[in-house]
Every structure is written in C-alpha cells, then in structure tokens.
Amino acid sequence: MYLLSYFIVIAFFRASLSRALDDLAPGPFSSKGRWIVDAQGQHVTYAGVNWPGAADTMIPEGLQYASVSNLVSKIKDIGMNAIRLTWAVEMVDDILDGGHDVDIKTSFINVLGLSNGTSVYNAVMKNNPNFAPNISRLEVFDAIAEECAKQQVYVHLDNHVSKAGWCCDKNDGNAWFGFKYFDVIKWKRALGYMADHGKSWSALRSMSLRNELRSTGSWLFNGQHVNWSDWYANMTAGAGALHTANPDVLIFFSGLSYDGQLRPLFTDGVMGEDIIFDMSKFKYVDKVVLEVHDYDMDSNCTTKRDLLTENSFGTLNATGSGVRKMFPLVMSEWGFEQSVAQSQAPYASCLRDFLPEQKVGWMTWVLSGSYYIRQGVPDKDEPWGLLDHEWKDWRCPECIREGLQPMISATLNDTT
Description:
Blueprint: H1 2-16, H2 18-22, E1 30-32, E2 35-37, E3 47-51, H3 68-77, E4 82-88, H4 89-98, H5 104-112, H6 114-127, H7 137-150, E5 154-161, H8 184-197, E6 204-208, E7 220-221, E8 224-225, H9 228-245, E9 250-253, H10 263-266, E10 288-293, H11 301-311, E11 329-333, H12 340-343, H13 346-358, E12 361-364, E13 370-374, E14 377-381, H14 397-412
Parallel strand pairs: 3-4, 3-12, 4-5, 5-6, 6-9, 9-10, 10-11, 11-12
Antiparallel strand pairs: 1-2, 7-8, 13-14
Helix pairs in contact: 5-6, 8-9, 13-14
C-alpha cells in the first residue's frame, strides 16, 4: 500500500508539472530584469540538484551503482528540471597540457589503487554497457548531457575547483585567484574550453564561473587581501572568456564569503577604486545571473529572510533599499542531512517556503548517496544525499514526498 501511494504521488507530480517535465524551453536563455527568459521571452525557473563531478577521479559520481539513464530518470521522476554538474579545471589541464583526456579506468586506478579502482571501473561498465571500454572522463560528462537532453532536463555546468578534490576550505589552495592551485590563466582557458565543448550539448543552458570564492575581510594570502576589486577584474575576465567561446549560455556570477555575499553587485556599493558592477559595458550584458548559497542553520526564519534579502535577494526588488540593478538569482546550493527531523527543522522549512515565494530557481545539495572517494575515504557515505548509499532509492522518502516535491511544484507552477 505504501509503495502504491508513493507511485500515485509521483504520477500526480508528473502530470502537474507537464511543461517542466516534457519540454526543454527553447534556447538560448537570456536575463531580463529579475528573470531568466527563454528564446521566446517566457520565464524559466530551475528546480534541480547538484551532481558532483569535480572530486578526485574527475568522473561524475555514482556510476558504480547505477546507470546514467536511471539516475537522470530519478531526478525527472520527482519533477526536477535541472542538474548542476560540477567539474574541475584539472581535467581540462590534463587534456590541453597532456594532449588528451584520461580514460576512466586509468583515473579510477590512479586514485583508488589497482584493486579497488579496477573493481569500481568494472561496476561502472556493467551498469553502463553503452560506455566504450576506453571512455574518457569528459565523455562521461557528454553521456550525462546527452541523457539529460533525451529526458528533458537542463544542464548547468559549475566550475567547482581547480585541483580536483572535496570542496571547500579557505586553505585548500582553490579558494581565491592566484592561490596555490588557482592559476587564473588556466582557469580562464578551462572556462573557454568547457563552454566551447558544451556547444554540442543541447540541454546546456548555463555555466557558473567559480564555486564559493573565500575568505573576506582582513585575511591575507601572500600579502593580498581577498577583495571586491580583484573579484571584479577576474570574474569579468572569466566571463569574457566563457562568452567568447559560447555566446549562448547564461553566466552565473558567485560572490564572496562562500557565495553568501552579493550585495555590492546590485547596489550602489563601490567595489574598490570607484568600481561598480556595471554589466552594460560588456557583450554578455543579457547573460548575467547571480548565484547564492545558504547553509546557515542557526538563524530563525525571520532572521534568515532578512539576511538573504540584504545580501542577495534584494536584487529581485527594484524599489529595495540601495538597489541599483536587478538580476536573476538562483540559489545553486542549499541542503541538509536527509532525515525527517532535519527536513522539518526551521532551516529546511524556511527555504522551502521562501524560495518559491521569491520565484527563484534553486539546486539542492546533493544527489550523491556516496562518493568514489572523499577526503581519502573510499566509498564514503553522504548523509546529505537525496539517494541512499547505493544510489538506488531515496534516502528519506518522506523528505522527498512531504518536502521536496511540493517545493518543486510550487517553484515550477508559478513563474509569472
């Protein structure tokens, strides 16, 4: 009876979200005021999930447990219309500096060791018999993009890190322009490469420049402050490289403080040396989208709403205090440990109401039930994952049924 009821709920959501589920809005997408619009001028909103592909192996996670088609189907079945697919600059460095990409068997063995790496590779190939034996890492990204197009799910590419691995820490060498692993020239090169490569992905609609730049204030690295003027110089240059390679995709700009602070981008606030975030001087003026993350689980809902409005969501209201420019906004990361208690806690409850009310897109963290390896631990479990450890079933069915699905419906059924 429980399973029957669950599948009745799934069927209801598929019927009620027919536009989101059955049609990819025609691209290219553009930004218009506070909205993302498709090629026909209709509003488009993302309701999606993060699918990590930037960790040590640089292969999208979970394929030792499930096929690409099955995982995209699971995303689609609950009404989601988008994935945020993460990638590392290191993969592009290998391709361009080494002359070719690495096949996934070699990558698994290099990271996991001969025995475990071979075992994981064999499991991936068994679950995905359409994969060629020598399939490369980037070709796995291609396969996911192809399946998303087939099942009508948008692809958003996120540059998560430079050196592949778990993110994020201010001392991991990936945090800021010029840090140990964050070679700015190679980063811009990689953005252009992935943007150009993505031209063949019919479901690709947007790309982000960088995940969770950090830290702020007086913290120094090699004598340099993390600051808005350096942010502006580097991010606009990165956007230029991306747009030159692929002028069709939307460009997501993240802010500072682990992408919690965006206010100088949409207000009269000066970013240093009289710099204002004025996109009218750039060719990609109609492609700019702001992205924000939120993992503040300590604030009550009233405080959370106020802080989000002050630091990011204020861009949606032209009459807000100090607002100079409206941009579309997407919360590209938020999430919590998948349990009924956490799903009903103030953090999750607040965002489930707030985001649809604000008519913004979002991607929750994270699809992964486990990782090939995380922070040195093979097959590490992910308590925040929507899927269970073996990527077969929902980790917390009630969280999906009572929490996430109504939020998806509220997000996608009201984009006026």
